[in-house]
Amino acid sequence: MRRDYLVKLSTPIGKRSGKLEVIKEGNQIWGTLKILNHSSPFKGRINIKDECTIVGSFVTLIKTVFYTASGFITDSTVDLKLNDKRNSYLLTGKINQESLQS
Prior knowledge:
Largest sheet: 8 strands, antiparallel, barrel
Structural class: mainly beta
CATH class: Mainly Beta
Order of helices and strands: EEEEEEEEH
Mean pLDDT: 94
Shape: globular
């Protein structure tokens, strides 16, 4: 199952808007985080309660952030905490309704 979400990433300099493309197959989850003018893949595992753990990266103006994230990706919402070596970032969002109509 594929879902597209409109997301916001909370950073030290404010919230940044983007998209999260998600594919779920069984307990596997993968996709692409499109944020800060870059697209980066992620992958991980998800259970039947929509709890997931994923690994991936995103690119800022000065560095690439490699993260491990945990939280929830449901059929309608995203609520993840991304952790790198020094910082935590919140990634939240809702299903892109336009993607459901195509």
